[in-house]
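Sequence in, structure out.
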Amino acid sequence: MRWYHYVAYFFGGAFLANFVPHFVQGVSGAPFQSPFADPPGEGLSSSTVNVAWGLFNLLVAYLLLLRVGQIDLRRGSHFAATAAGFVAMSVMLARVFGRLHGGDL
């Protein structure tokens, strides 16, 4: 296994985590922050933009996790790299969105 496969798995996990809030808010019909809002990341984007952004993140996660190398989540090192990216992005999103939505107590 090459070192860059682990980097791809880490970022694949991060993109997978970023898919969740944008897609869920979008299919719920709620406006939500996105990089395309004004100001970027703080202003609200439409639910359609968030669905599209979420699906783009899912596509990138798919490419990084399933098209780079031969990921096997039963292997501890593969799971750890993917989970580390997922956890890192999840905590970062919780901090950013918590600050904007009053959840960062």
